[in-house]
Amino acid sequence: MEPGNLLCGGASVAAVLPAGGSGERLGAAVPKQFCALLGRPLISYTVRALERIRWISDIVVVVSLENIETMKSIIEKYGHKRITVVEGGITRHRSIFNGLKIFPESKPSSCPLQKPEVVIIHDAVRPFVEEDILLKVVLAAKEHGAAGAIRPLVSTVVASSADGSLDHSLERARYRASEMPQAFLFDIIYQAYHQCTDYDLDYGTECLHLALKYCKTNAKLIEGSPDLWKVTYKRDLYAAESVIKDDLSQQVCVTTDMKEDAVQLGFLLHETLKSEVKQVKGISVFLCKNDNRLQNIFLGQCYNFICINAKKSDIKETQQLVDILENARISVLHPVVLISVHLNISENMSFSSGIEELAAIKEFAREVKKKNILVYGLLIHYNKAWQSNQESTRSDPRSAPFVRQSSQAQQMMSCAQPALSQLTLTALGHRAMRGTGRWDHILTKAATAPTWKK
């Protein structure tokens, strides 16, 4: 059993994304699922939200015949995995049924998909679904046969008479809005679709109702979060774009080499950024592309990195991280912000050597920008001799090693913190405002602004 399957009670899980709609209410030239958000199709965000959950084994995307090649090109361009594209029907229910049929009717030679125990059904135009709600509906479906997310009604529902007059209204507190995702034991929902009438397939919209009507399965209703909203109108595209920009700016990963000065500076920076950024992750590693911690961070869709190293006149650590980012293909999805911090701790400092380092970083930044990786450079020069003179006055020799180490990191941090914190927040702020806009101006300024401590 895969480790991820333990989270969902040991059940095998697949997902079906109906994406065959025309998007008439949006009024755009293309169906809403293919509209671009920050230069990337909406459906790619939804696929990625499911794809990064390891216990979902297969994702079936159901699209209209004329959009099959479009969907395949999106999968190839953005490196999506575990995706199968299926031709949809003329209605939502018929499309979902086509997606379900790919499992038991697939043959090893044509489509090596195995029938799952539980299947998730989710809308392709709800890109902000989180693992938490998916896990809840899967576990509930395994126990009850079917489960779905719900939200409180925000408006009162009324029924009108034939002449357009009010007939009656529903008591809002007793009713809920049915949302996505929903999950089912596969055999239950597959049997329900096989039994339902043409009228159900052509005019119905609620999968939970089919499970109740044809399989006597009472679905468990799970309270969902406000993030489950559906992109329906043009204004929703602008709202979704704003959410994506904000999310891109709210995760930072701080990596350091294994040298003690870099590790301590990374820890103090991690603590400083906690009050400004929603999620800060810190790791001290020998960078390698197979590092599981980095891979987990990539799956968590982090696009902002601070790389701290204490190797004088050496950008190899930064180059290694760039190589890992490139191999992980995350810069294909969004620009990656990489702040390269170089510590120069020595008794003698040369202004000319600092300028040479700066020029090397600037040239490096210019090259990797072509890969959609945006590098900022910061040099921190620290006079170790000055610190040694300060520490020689301390009276307790037993505590001197620890005090010297922590005090040196704190001194460096007090020197570097204003510039590094400001640089980080400036980069994230520009990302939030501009998304994938032009970076030339701030890139040049950041790469030519070293901080010196004498």
Radius of gyration: 27 Å
Unreliable spans: 389-406, 434-454
Give a count of the beta strands, DSSP E runs of length 2 or more.
17
Could you describe the largest sheet, including whether it forms a barrel?
7 strands, mixed
Considering DSSP H and I runs of 4 or more, what fraction of the residues is helical? Answer: 40-55%
* Overall average residue pLDDT: 79
- Approximate shape: elongated
Helix/strand-derived class?
Answer: alpha/beta
Sequence of strands across the biggest β-sheet: 5-4-1-6-10-7-11
Alpha-carbon distance between the two ends: 58 Å
Which percent band covers the strand fraction?
15-25%
* Count of DSSP-assigned helices: 15
Could you explain the architecture of this structure?
This protein is of the alpha/beta class. Helix content is 41%, strand content 21%. It is built from 15 helices and 17 strands. Helix 11 links the parallel strand 14 (304-309) and strand 15.
Key features of this structure:
454 residues, 21% strand, seven-stranded mixed beta sheet, alpha/beta
Concise summary:
The protein has helices at residues 42-51, 68-77, 92-101, 131-144, 186-195, 198-203, 207-215, 234-248, 260-273, 292-299, 316-328, 351-368, 384-391, 400-434, 440-447, and strands at residues 13-18, 36-37, 40-41, 56-63, 83-87, 118-121, 146-152, 158-160, 166-169, 176-185, 220-223, 251-256, 279-284, 304-309, 336-346, 373-383, 451-452. With 454 residues, it is of the alpha/beta class. The strands form four sheets. The protein has a seven-stranded mixed sheet with strand order 5-4-1-6-10-7-11, sandwiched between helices. It has a six-stranded parallel sheet with strand order 13-12-14-15-16-17, with helices on both faces.
